Amino acid sequence: MASYTGSHEAFGPAQSPSLNGFALPKSNAVPDEDQPLLGSRLSSSPGSKGRRRSMMVDVRRDWADLVLLSCYLITGLLDSASISIWGSFVSMQTGNSVYLGLGLAAPTESTRWIKSGVSIIAFCLGSFVFGRFHRYFSPKRRWVLCASFLVQMLLVSAAGAIVTFGPAGDEGKKDEITWNVLAPIALVAFQSCGQAVTSRAIGHNALTSVVLTTIFCDLFSDPGLFHLRNAERNRRAAASVLLVAGAISGGLLAHSRAGIAGALWTAAVLKLGIVVTWFFWPAEMD
């Protein structure tokens, strides 16, 4: 992953008012045309300045792995429901790559490879967009993290709205290829890479939340597997448990009356919770 660099804007000093080239004397009176409505200058209030300043700081890395671990729950939830109803993954693209290869080998046997291809393309596009967004505006800046997960939440909500209010489809037909199936797959796959990009931005590269194979390998090959204190071991074990828990939840929702729409709306609520979490997360110490 390319290194991230922040960007800063400089603003020049305010110019004194002048008349025909001569500086006017300073006055405490505010001209009528500059007076805000209701007699209050909201833009310069201490509270708004404090909030603005708070959004421009980098968040602290300490314990941020807990937020990334919660993304494993979301991944399990969405992938489980998606594979149960649509027959393709929306986060873990390894499985989709296998489905794509099988489909290209025998394209008339199933349409699953088409959905998998759509998911892969959307995921790659999302990685391109989210990666550059974080890199351009500073990866750990509070407003960047909030905006990233807010966009993810909106995309999942859009997918949920299509499934909930769009044309009724037969969720039991995994070979169905319609816009109200392909569009939600693309939307959810596009946003799912935002979690992986965030793991790079925070500095926990192993907690991408979109792959578990390397987690299993690193967990059981760890020489300190049975040590009493091993933070890396604990993170890997927690990631595995949370993804399986999410998969169980997604499967239960997919086979309930809520269907895949229930899984999508649940994921959207969890994403919103992460937005709020980043908003209140402690700032990096100077």
From TrEMBL:
Entry keywords, A to Z: Membrane, Transmembrane, Transmembrane helix
Region (Disordered): 1-53
Keyword Repeat: no
UniProt key word Repeat: no
Pfam families in alphabetical order: DUF1275
Top-level taxon: Eukaryota
Compositional bias ranges of the Low complexity kind: 36-48
Chain segments annotated as transmembrane: 63-92, 112-131, 143-165, 237-254, 260-281
Protein name (Swiss-Prot/TrEMBL): DUF1275 domain protein
Gene source species: Zalerion maritima
